[in-house]
Structure formats: C-alpha cells, structure tokens
Amino acid sequence: MRAKITYFLTAAVLVVYFVLVGSRGLMLIQHGTWITVTFGVAVLILPVIGIWFLWKNTQFVTKANQLATELEAEGGLPVDELERDKYGRILRDSADEVFARRKAETEDAPGDWRSWFRLAVAYRDARDTPRARKAMQRAISLHDAKPVRV
Questions:
Q1: Are 149 and 139 in contact (CB under 8 A)?
Q2: Each residue of 39-74: pLDDT tens digit?
Q3: 8 A C-beta contact, residue 116 and residue 106
Q4: What span, in angstroms and rounded, lies between the C-alpha atoms of 49 and 73?
Q5: Using CA atoms, how far apart are residues 25 and 37, in angstroms rounded to an integer?
C-alpha cells in the first residue's frame, strides 16, 4: 500500500510539474520572437516526453498488478521464503538460492507467464531491477499472447 501511495504522490507531483513547464512553454511561444518560440517549443517537448513516460510506467504497473491478482487467485504467487537480517533486509545468499530455483523453473517452461512472473520477483529480491522489469515485461507479453522480442 505504501508503494501505491508513493507512486500516486509522485505521479501527481509530476503532473503539476508538467502543467507548470507547459504553461511556461506556451508563454514563451506567445511572446512571438523567433528565439522565444524556439525555446517554447523545446520546453513543451519535456512535458510530452514526461507524460509518455508516466503513461507507459502506469500501464506496466497496472498490468503487473493484474497478473499478480490472477496468480494469487490461482494460488501460484511465490511464497516469501527468504532469510532476512535483523533489520528486515533480504540476505543476498538467500535471494540467490531462490533465484536459481526460479531461473530453472523458467528454463523448464519458457512459454509460461507464471514462471516469468516469479522470476521477476526473484530478480527484484536479488536487487536486479532492470532484469526484474524485463522478466515482468516478458510475463505480460506471454499473458497477453503478444509476440515477444528477444
């Protein structure tokens, strides 16, 4: 729940930022000289890129949450079997052990979105966020039966 609140607060702050930057870009364009129009257009590009990025991330999170809900209904969510230190952080050796099992499971069933989902969770637990994201994207693509780019 804390992650959702943080995500929505960050998204709201970004939207306010995009509105402020966009209004400044429009003000520059309305000024009318060639230099201010050029700067105004350049400034307007930033909110467009930001909105696109926010939209794609929101879609990703929504689809990943849908997969988690579906997997939970099936009883297939990975069980938290990780060892933790006294501060609650996951121990690296424990994460590596679980990761090895999840990787083997995924190699045995490369077309199963469930195994890719569990592998994404294992990557995240091992603090490898880029690979976790790619594994989750693969799970989403397999679930939606889209062709997967390798």
A1: no
A2: 999 999 989 999 999 999 999 999 999 999 999 999
A3: yes
A4: 36
A5: 8
Q: Is 148 helix (H, G, I), strand (E, B) or coil?
A: coil
pLDDT band of residue 147 (cuts 50, 70, 90) is: low
Q: How many CB atoms lie within 10 A of CB 42?
A: 11
Q: How far apart are CA 133 and CA 64, in angstroms?
A: 10
Model confidence, pTM: 0.78
Q: CA angle, corner 53, sides to 25 and 26, nearest 5? A: 10
Could you list the beta-strand ranges (E) of the chain.
none
140 burial via Cβ count (<10 Å: 0-12, 13-18, 19+): buried
Cα–Cα distance list, 103 to 21, 34, 107 (Å): 44, 57, 6
Number of Cβ within a 10 Å radius of residue 32: 9
Q: How many residues comprise the chain? A: 150
8 A C-beta contact, residue 43 and residue 62: no
Three-state DSSP state, 133: helix
- The SS3 assignment for 90 reads strand
Distance CA 132, CA 119 (A): 7
